[in-house]
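Hey, I'm writing a tutorial for new members on how sequence and structure tokens pair up, and I'd like a real worked example in the thread rather than a made-up one. If someone can provide the structure for the chain below, I'll link this post from the tutorial.
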Amino acid sequence: MAGAYKQAKLALLNRWKTFITKAAQTFADAETALANKRIVEIQTACQNLFGRFVRGGPDVKPTLNRAQNSENVDLKLADFFGLSDLSARALLSESYRNAVAAAIFLSAAIKHSCVPRFMILDDVTSSFDAGHQFALMDALRTHLRHGAVPDGLQFIILSHDTSLEKYFDKLNGTAEWHHQKLQGMPPKGRLMVSTLEADRLKAQAQQHLNAGQVDIGAPFLRQYLEYKLGYIISKLEVPVPPDYATRGDKRTLSTYVDAIMDAVALYQAANRCVLTAQQISDLQNQHTPSIVGNFISHYETSAGTPFNAYALLGVLQSIDDLADCFTYVDSASGQKRYYRRLDKR
């Protein structure tokens, strides 16, 4: 009796094993067929997007194939300078491989999208070549964005790529683009969404310093100083070193100040500086030494006298006084205006 019972139980387990094996294979085959179908559906879109991202480059056409009995997707090149069916990994540079990955991801997102209808891209251009960075942003804006195409997505782009900063700034305020810039370090600062925020930075710095809260007020003061120096450089078209223009890590408070003061000295030596003799004297002998000696030197090197609220309030006033050295009173309106350049009103 015991033997017969065990035989029956073993037969039941074998039938269950056979069922589970067949069911698993059926589901696997269906999932593979669905994956391959979706790959075919996005193939053309992927190739078109890739062409947009690397426009001007060789006519490379990536193709996708699901590896047999695997979750991996094989990436081949349908066309590579006349050659076909070549390994993309072996031939494409990192920037091109990233362009392929972005093309696959975005093609699938557009084709098989569902709610929510937005996508967050975190530093997506970090390993792209410079031209490919702009091409990717332009494709997002003109070819994939909701509003540009009927079934497009909304994109939230997080980036610290300084080479794209001017591109973002140019689009800021348009109906299709909202740009928020986090100014400077450390992260105790605040988000600046407009020029008016600079006045609020000053007000917050003043409030905390008046209360003796140096640790809280100093970061706001630094942000305000960085904004004002950068505004002077931009407004008066002050020439800057190549590293300053292309690398965010080369923009320190001292390089801002050096760029401005070197430009003033250059135009003054050429007898073309539009600033008055008093403005130049105030810059060189009062405001700049006050800012550098009481704030920048200690901030960048931790050397010298530690910050105190009274000295930093003086720095806050010196920042505005320094900025005033680059302005004049318009005789027609009686309003204070910035010079157009260091050699013209």
